[in-house]
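Q: Structure for this?
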Amino acid sequence: MPELPEVETTKNELKLIIINKYIDKILIFTDSLRFQLNKKNLKKIEKSKIIKVIRKGKYILIFFLNNYILLIHLGMSGRLIFKKEIFNKTKHDHIVLRIKKNFNIIFNDPRKFGIVDVIKKDLLLNSRYLKKLGVDALSKKFSYKYFENVLINRKTNIKNILLNQSLISGLGNIYVCESLFEAGISPFKLANSLNKKNIKILKNKIQKVLKKAIKLKGSSINDYKTPMGILGSFQNNFKVYNREGKSCKNIYCGKKIIRTIISGRSAYFCKNCQKN
DNA sequence: CGTACGACCTGCCCGC
DNA sequence: TGCGGGCAGGTCGTAC
């Protein structure tokens, strides 16, 4: 599920529920996610007050009063789920954050590509996770100038650049495809060949697509739901993603959407509308 | 340093 | 009904 809009939605619901509360206990059912869980570290946040919840790229950061931070990445299939009882544990529930007896936050992740870790506040920006993370796609720091500097001198295709979290963080395959379509730019176009106008349009479209997706609580594919159990609906607005062989939604076009592979991942686009 | 690619893991869908 | 192959919203480690 989780690109910037889904992570933002998850973070927002989380914030609503847990700010100023305490995690009474952490229960671990699986300790090998993307990285081996550090149980000793995780224990450090038990019984400390939660004072802040933010998102950086695709990471959720939960700040505690004792200067530790719980960092969560949802990987490819991770979700947070609010649950009253945990005796009805379902498959792939790996970690339980117990707030109260009748209120738990579950980290569920079938593919186990997610990350859950606790980091000391002073070490956060230097951690393996955030050290090389690029500017967030919705932050003010993602300026025209910054974008131009990222693109200049790079001869890889623009799709790979946008997927590279160490340059700009938050975008994934869905929103890259959708943004490139909105901007009329081919996913194959080389980064250093975008002109000023291309760069401006692409930056605007990226942010516009992300904001609209957040408004709709993300995209629900394969049953993805927010922690409160709500379905996102941006998938109803897909213009290219997952639409291979269907006709382009631009009026007066109607050509078929193409799916091809770029660096091992699907790229969906309209040959007619993405000529730039 | 930048880039390319296999690896990690589970589930689902399709064709035979 | 069963099995093999390909695919999936991500990113890391290794090799060049």
